[in-house]
Amino acid sequence: MSVPLPPPFRARMKAWLGSEADAFLAGLDEAPRVGLRVNTLKVTVAGLRERLPWSATPVPWCAEGFVLSAEAEPPPGRHPYHAAGLYYLQDPSAMAAAVLLDPQPGEWVLDLCAAPGGKATHLAARMADQGLLVANESVPARAAALVDNLERAGATRILVTTAAATDLAARWPGSFDRVLVDAPCSGEGMFRKSPVARREWSPAVVTGCALRQRHILDAAARLVRPGGRLLYATCTFAPEENEAVVAGFLRGHPDFSLVAPPALPGFDPGRPDWIESELAAGLPLERCVRIWPHRTMGEGHFFALLQREGEPSARSYPPLPTLRELPPLLRTLWEANFAVPFPTQGWLAAGEWLHLSPIGPTFWQALHPRRIGLRVGQRRGLRFEPDHALALAALPPRPDGRLDLALDTAELRAFMQGEPFPHPGPDGWVLVCGDGFGLGWGKRVQGVVKNHLPARWRHAGTW
User: What share of the chain is helix, strand, coil (3-state, %, to 5)?
Assistant: First the structure.
């Protein structure tokens, strides 16, 4: 990489790692790995692996994770399987977050710093798209990518918010079974990927990040239910942002304790010896997890799994919204394309848009979410136009309702490029699929399928 490692960073790591420092520093100049995580909302691990055109090496700590070669061809981000949301391209170390937090179907889970959505989509899959997933991103400009990635993953029981952590804590104290804090950090673990992270690093940045992380973690603690779990994660090696933040948190929150992680290959223990002895004294900081890029296949990451003491009280569920009138075409389109019953509750109107909300509006309306559940479509006078999110939702399609194209057809290539293509059949909306998986909507008019794939999803691709 043309941008050298900052000399103060090199000196710090040599002092801490000793004889291992040379291997560590050399590893940061190697090519990063390409990670691929199967989206189990849409396909099984075995089902996708037998379809993949690339050689894939399993990630030792994530059953649905794989590593591809850096020269993987065709590019995995340009394949129809990616457009259909069958997998997410994610750093292998980042996959450990959902593994450690271990969300269960039916739980309420919060990803507090969620953009661009890699960990949030993994949480949704681990939850089997049941319960409630709130994906929050306090920087509104980053929320669009978060919505897109959750949409492509097919997640429907979601809220995407853009609030400060303190605002959420004031609104939803003690509400979540599991909370993920993927904290903004100095990014040392991304030095192998990011010249910007190398250029912008300084000891002052480390200090500033640690201060910000402590504030975020304090707010996150207020959101965890009694008996619930909180995962603190960074992509940095700096102990000031890792063990020191966790130790300070435990000193100030005696109702939380560190949970011993599972013994998985690639998980190294925390380093309490790298922080002040008085701060570390009596705390089991070795229960934290460090992933080192020179020892395994992922980038540098740190995790600390914390549990709040106590037993949760019974949860109250705000009533779901119900609309009196829905466009007649909506039910017809749903029943023609999906092999699940037409929902009778949860319908919500936001202007001309219709959503299926996973929870009643009294829970979220004061926060003005960027996305509420599944955006189903838009009323246009007497007409109804289905939204792209509905085509990608993790709903089983009716085999007789979809327009299923093989990957090697000119029609599929035309569709992925946003072009119309000839196809006989009755006029009306059709769910266009590739190899059986939803890609988007077309509207057939006199034997020609008009393309309704959003412009941002279109590409020529090479597969």
Answer: 35, 25, 45
pTM over 0.70: yes
Q: Where are the beta strands (DSSP E) in 235-357?
A: 256-258, 268-269, 289-291, 301-308, 347-350, 353-356
Task: Report the C-alpha gap between 146 and 142 in whole angstroms.
Answer: 7
CB 450 within 8 A of CB 423: no
Q: 88-118: b or e for each residue (b if 16 or more CB lie within 10 Å)?
A: bebbbbbbbbbbbbebeeebbbbbbbbbebb
Catalytic annotation, pick one of 113, 185, 235, 288: 235
Distance CA 293, CA 33 (A): 10
- Please state at what angle helix 143-153 crosses helix 118-126, rounded to 10 degrees: 30
List the beta bridge partners of residue 303: 233, 289
Question: How far is residue 271's CA from residue 240's CA, in Å, rounded to a whole number?
Answer: 11
Is there a catalytic annotation at residue 209?
Answer: no
Q: Are 288 and 258 in contact (CB under 8 A)?
A: yes
Q: Which two tokens stand for residue 427?
A: 């006029």
* Residue 58 token pair: 């399993």
pLDDT tens figures, 235-282 = 999 999 999 999 999 999 999 999 999 999 999 999 999 999 999 999
Whether 443 contacts 452, CB under 8 Å: yes
Collapsed DSSP state (helix, strand, coil) of residue 152? helix
241 near 182, Cβ under 8 Å? no
Q: Whole-angstrom Cα distance, residue 351 to residue 354? A: 8
